[in-house]
Amino acid sequence: MGQGPGRLLVWLYGVFTVAAASRSVVQMIVDFGRAPLAYVLSAGAALVYAFITYSLVRGGEQARRAALVCCAAELAGVLVVGTWTLVEPSAFPDATVWSDYGMGYLFIPVILPVTAMAWLRRAER
Predict the structure, then answer these.
(1) C-alpha triplet 76, 83, 118: angle, nearest 5°
(2) Model-level pTM?
(3) Is 62 within 8 Å of 114 (Cβ atoms)?
């Protein structure tokens, strides 16, 4: 992955993969019935993060395009879930990684895909 922004993106996506996966697994084991939608969405976010991490590490044009598509899907997910949690908070008795646009994670979930897409677009040239 080289140096600089690419390496930082791999590191951040790796950290978010572990954080989202760990959180969702623990929540699903401990109290799945409390907020199944939130826990499943967090697990889905972990899968998206893992695929983006893998694509960034793998490199190459095909992996770059796959990462770009996944980052766009990630951003859409953050915007949809973030808006949903604000409009209908009762649907989420517990937070997801993407709740309130990632406020619980210092808004990194909404900033990260935008940054990654910009970097991947620049790397395309």
Answers:
(1) 35
(2) 0.90
(3) no
